[in-house]
Amino acid sequence: MIFMDFARQPTTFWDVFAKWSSTLGMNKTGQFPFAVAWTKLFLSITGAPLTPFMIRLPSALWGILAILALYGCGRVLAGSAFALFLAAFFALNPFHIGISREAYFYPPMVCGSVLLIWAVFLQIKTVRDKNTLPGIFYFLLASGFFLTAYSQPSGWPFALMSISVILWMQAKKALREKYITRALIGIIFILAVIGIPLLLLDWALPQMISISSPEHKAYVSRIFGPGTEPVLSMLTRPLFLFGWGKTILRSLIAVVVILLSIIVTFRLWRRSAAVPVVIVLLAGNILLFAAARLVLIEQATSSRYLLTSLPLYIIWLALGIWFVPDLIRLSGKYNSRIGIAIASALIAVALSLNILPAYLATQLSGKPTPYWDIAHWCDSNLPPHSLVLVERWFDPWNELRIHNSTNVYFTFPVPSEPPDVFKQVNWPLHARRFMEKYPDAAYLEYFNSERQIKGLVTNWHFARMVSFTNEAAIKLAELGLAHREEFFDPHKNKLIVTIFYNTREDTIANARAAGNQYLVLYGPEWGYVKLWQQLRDFRDWRILEKEASLDIYNLTGLTNRVALNVRGMALNGSKRVVSSGKIHDFRHMQLEEWVLSDITFKPGINKIVLSDSLWSVSKVPALIDQVEIVPSP
Fold first, then answer.
1. pLDDT value at 172 more than 90
2. How far is the C-alpha of 396 from the C-alpha of 398, rounded, in Å?
3. Which of 10, 191, 348, 526 has its Cα between 20 and 30 A from that of 446?
4. How much is the average pLDDT of 251-258?
5. pTM of the predicted model, to two decimals?
6. Among positive and negative, which fits the CA dihedral 248, 254, 258, 259?
7. Cα(34)–Cα(568) distance, rounded to whole angstroms?
8. Considering only CA atoms, which of 113, 120, 192 is closest in space to residue 148?
9. Is 362 helix (H, G, I), strand (E, B) or coil?
């Protein structure tokens, strides 16, 4: 949604950076502009249409590049065969696939972290071989540091750890040789050019300082609730989530490979400088993030915030599998065939276990809500210009605006979040009044676990329902491999959503059962708008342009004379409306009532047509917020 909105705006690559915290409205969001700017640049260069696929493609390219970069890491670390296994292991990782297929801020950060790891390994190899740093090292350092630090603030701990390791190794060399090397000067220059702006740009360090204030923390706590998950639980969850999942079998395999990696770490600690560096980077990154979480925001409990540790963790697990033959040899009972056979079997298991999850990660119909499925169903099954009341008030003007229906209007009665607002405004009462006003409206429910709290489904009769299930997300959650925490409870986190609705016949039957004498339904010509952001008013407006009809059902079985009260106003001028031989001029932003008296309603359906013969010239709409039937005196 965020990326689609920015892609539609007439802003340039540089505008995104310059206006991020001001006119683009992203201040105190905890996000950085690079990923959005890159998407804008990609779309402007390619001229690609703004489709869901094209909006996500720039992120997917970073995911692909990260796999290739990890292959480069593997070659430096243990040769081409290991590199091929490592790249395949990472390519099949469902967490990496899920993140890379989202138009969001993390994919370039993950790619940057892999490039930094590659630079670290190149430096280790250079020191070991007593060579000078190759030119590609400086490119990897610059691009890796930039992508990690400029994409998302959760990349800062890893960027700090990586550059600390690089500077430490160069400082050791300078002390040994008793002069400052040109390599060290070049590294410091690159880090200064890229890093110093982060201290000054309003969307970088100043934003991080502002969101660490007690006032902002209290605001976040009010919106999202307190961060109740223990730090240890949050930090250890990725041990399974970044690997093979958390079923019994998958957990056992993960434990076996983790134990092998621990043994390999001890065995190779003095033989390979890369192994201690991997552990230092992993542990340091996790500890720095834990510290930053305490300072900044306790609600930062998602495993996505530890994504820069994912490539390192994959490398560490791969080392544990790859060096099984060496463990057997070092044990004194070496048999090359046995060692290779065990390692080959472990490689096959490691890769094959994630083939199905990798496929499922490409089949997600939402993250987690399947919005496109909802919109497509509404387009095909609900009457034109129907109203659909949505349980979450954010979605009609956010996600459901992007995943747009061509046939219905998604809306909300009043704000329903956070919980204190829900209680304060009495959301269930307003939802009930909305359904009484628009009895043929449908209702989109996200959380069936909160059905009693919301009260609409239990207090309003819907004859029909249809559910939409994000099957792939539920299966990934069952395996313990979902890349979003929202996937782990389908009944609380919008993986299974339901539309409740009535047909025209159902609506009439409901009105009869309720003892109503009349039923007013809007025809398909009516538009709809909610001007809450402009007028600070949550009134629902039906839009009359050239002509629209009211379908009024007389349920009494008798012919009656009544008056029809139409309340509304014009927008951007005056509008003359004609109906049943009567004329009324609605004025701009002047809410008034028009009484059409002495109208005869026969039993059954009666059509009342309202029209504006000057619509083609004036283009002034009328906004109608209420139609009532009153018996004639």
1. no
2. 6
3. 526
4. 94
5. 0.88
6. positive
7. 46
8. 113
9. coil
